[in-house]
Amino acid sequence: MRELPCYPGSPPQGFTGERTMDRKYQFSWDLLGDISQGRPNLGPVTRLEVYRLMQFCLRDVLEQNLGKQKADEVFYQAGYLAGSEFFNNVLGPQDDFNEFVRSLQNALKEMGVGILRVEEADLETGSFVVTVSEDLDCSGLPELDYEICIYDEGFIAGLMESFTGRKFKVKEVDCWCTGDRTCRFTAQVID
Ligand SMILES: [Zn+2]
After folding, report:
1. Per-residue pLDDT reduced to its tens digit, 101-120
2. Fewest CB atoms within 10 Å of the CB: 2, 42, 180, 189?
3. How far apart are the C-alpha atoms of 63 and 71, rounded to whole Å?
4. Which PANTHER family does this UniProt record tie to the protein (predicted)?
5. How far apart are CA 61 and CA 81, in angstroms?
6. Measured in angstroms, how far is the CA atom of residue 24 from the centroid of ligand 1?
7. Domains of the chain, with CATH numbers?
């Protein structure tokens, strides 16, 4: 099984106890189901409020149960798992960086996740800056004094690691919620 990363700044215990447990909810792409069969009238699209309602209520309860730091770690790891699965099941094998970015941009736009741009890419040092506009998770939210797209940080880390085979630390540095009109992420190789 893919090893989940630690959220930056959290103690390294992660989910180590869980990996040896009997699993009930291990993710597989099949769990997303046959939507054309299951929703012949409503189809694959839902209202964004419903997605945010689920995500933000889940985060509220995670924080109440586990604390702020652990809740952030869970979101980062869930995003990482999702990014890895998205790479394998939506994008497929990629060997050219520009082609990888193009496929990713198209998929994220087509699925209504956001508009991705790569601002800086240094393949030799493994240093990247990407922006996501009209982001699924945060565009239009009230202004806060912190960046909130921790799931997206993990998602980008999962994608970058799947493409390069190297470990990444991803940090959101600008967010709709901190007054910017796009989310900006730094991604840096850490191995
Ligand atoms: Zn954001």
Report:
1. 999 999 999 999 999 999 99
2. 42
3. 5
4. DNA-DIRECTED RNA POLYMERASE SUBUNIT I, SLR0144 PROTEIN
5. 20
6. 31
7. 28-189 (3.30.1380.20)
